[in-house]
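Q: Give me the 3D complex with zinc ion.
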Amino acid sequence: MYWADELASRLSGPQVVNDSKTPSGTVHVGSLRGPVVLDAIWRALRDRGLEAQLLYGVDDMDPMDAQALLTPDAVERYMGVPLARVPAPEGSGAASYARHFAGLFLDTFAGLGIHPRTYWMSEVYPSGAVDPYVRLALDRADRVREIYRRVANVQHSADWHPVQVVCEDCGKIGTTIVTQWDGERVFYECRADLVAWARGCGHSGWVEPFGGRAKLGWNLEWAAQWGIFGVTVEPNGKDLATAGGSRDRADAISREIFEREPPLNFPYEFLNISGRKMSTSKGRGAAAHTMVDLLPPELVRFLFLRYRPNHAIDFDPAGDTIPRLFDEFDRIAAAVAGRDVKGELPPDHERIFATSLLDPDADPAAEAARFRPDFSQVALLVQLPGADIEGRLAVEKGAPLDMAEQVILADRLRAARAWLEAYAPDRARFAVRDELPMEARHGLADEQRAYLGALAQSSAVARPVSGEAWQDLIFRLAEEAALPAGRAFAAIYLAFLGRTNGPRAGWLLAGLDREFVAERLRGAAGWSPDPEEATA
Ligand SMILES: [Zn+2]
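A: Here is the predicted complex, encoded as structure tokens.
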């Protein structure tokens, strides 16, 4: 059974699926695994007929602790301040640092067909919804300390309390520690040296820790979110799922302090970015919003859903990773459409395909049957000057593209251009030469020229139109001339591109003007080295 269906089969009654994130900077594409897994679970619950709500929280009361993202003069002032109260980076129209970075991330969700109800902790605290949990945590501070000792082997001092106050003097929260609780107010100090990454102002005083003047420690805040929103399922990254880690602590706090059974856990593995060739200077990189701009949404979903969540994914957007991702998606689509495909299929390929689709109500069989142009072919066609791309692909399909297929093509054109610009290997980039290249004049052997001559003649008779037909002819003539296929392809690449490698030759010739191809083939075949130039 598909992992999300299996999980859904263990549940009954109304469900609330939740995740949350600290918006501390640009998030890379791997961070989308959580939301995609979340959405797949929500869809599986819905498919099972359960009432299900999808929630996503922004932990924007967390302190700013990423110095690299601040200008030098802002470091002293804003390190340790709640992210909701740090200004947005220059040039951003957002109301705060948190709104800016969380906004970028949340905007990508909608484009991926993920539509959670979002909440911001900077709004939840002032609403008073957290106050009962703050009170419980303070009343039971000794038991919280005992949980940290027992579950996580963390020893807090006897006067440590599990809330942090927003300093009334300097506005920082990361630098304050609460040392007393009288049942209505806490006593706190804003210490210069409490943490290494931010400097407190030295202020101290008594304050009522409610209504947003203080926040719970992170593990407690997590457990409080479960109670406030009635969360029943919460997947989390495996970094949080280690023994004694954040999830274990939050689970224990939920049970023992807030007296509520924690939500069903569902740990998922990471997507690792292994891009040694990536550099941000060329606009490369793997920021979530960059990848979402590049890949069509169903391909982003598929990137994560192709494998079970407990399977780590290595993703290097450079090289052939992206064409291979498209090829694998198309292969699974073809299998869902009932066509024969090469290679082994994942056992749940129908569900993988269905959950990769943007629209949860789409008909997977109809979607799978659509014509999807090969990504490498699209990447080839966009490099041919003046090519009638849609016309070419209609030839490959054998019929005009319908509206949905035109959208698929537009997505792939955009992706191919971005891939060629930033990630493609050099061999995938080429330019068809206007004149017979010098490299062909010097590099073609006699039997290769004879081969190109034969190709010119045969194609004038056979008139191949599709890339497939050209490819067949190229192979057949090479065989007839007893020319190794590699030498035959090299001859074509030399004649058109001035080099010995290139994209699929059949598609290349099919994409070019018929007269231009014929003339070039004849020219390359008939050209013989000028004896003077050859000896010079
Ligand atoms: Zn202070």
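A quick observation: The longest helix spans residues 403-422.
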